[in-house]
Amino acid sequence: MARISFAKGQDNGRDQKTRGHGSQRDRQGAARSTRREGRTPAVLYGGGEAPTPLSLDARTVTRLIFAGHFLTTIFELDVDGKTERAIPRDYQLDVVKDHPLHVDFLRLKPGSRLRLEVPVHFVNHEAAPGIKRGGSLNVVYHSIELWVPPTIFPRRSPPI
């Protein structure tokens, strides 16, 4: 097993620390046995490299997911002495117990860009002359898609 540590980075103060283990299990049922050990299976993929199976402490992952901003936090992963930047791309929760079943991490290579969906927030729409006269605001899109470098993570759109 390869030792993995999530070290605090420098991106917008939304980086976290936790510890995990790399896993070379390829047999069927590996995820289930990882969960029995009190860990959450994960995969690090992308960047033109082969996917790397990981296992993370279940309590730490649960805390990070429910604390908020998990999917917009950049982690620095130390995999076999090699530091790789990654962002959680998706996670699955148990439908009954509401604990994490699996986490997917996307490698961030220098010069790469990410597709983000940023929520749109309307400011001072109550003061618009048309709305004051009885009109309504017709919202077509509730979020916009942006392609940004991993160092820039807008939490929401600029005021519209």
Describe this structure in words.
The protein folds into two domains: 3-109, Beta Barrel (Ribosomal Protein L25, Chain P), CATH 2.40.240; 115-148, no CATH class. It is 13% helix and 41% strand. The chain has three helices and nine strands. The chain has helices at residues 30-36, 58-67, 129-132; strands at residues 3-7, 18-22, 39-46, 49-57, 75-79, 82-93, 100-108, 114-119, 143-148. Strands 1-2-4-3-7-6-5 form a seven-stranded mixed beta barrel. A two-stranded antiparallel sheet has the order 8-9. A hairpin with a 6-residue loop joins strand 6 (82-93) and strand 7 (100-108). The protein is elongated and about 65 Å long. The chain starts with a strand and ends in a 12-residue tail after the last strand.
Question: TL;DR of this structure?
Answer:
The protein is built from 3 helices and 9 strands. The chain has helices at residues 30-36, 58-67, 129-132, and strands at residues 3-7, 18-22, 39-46, 49-57, 75-79, 82-93, 100-108, 114-119, 143-148.
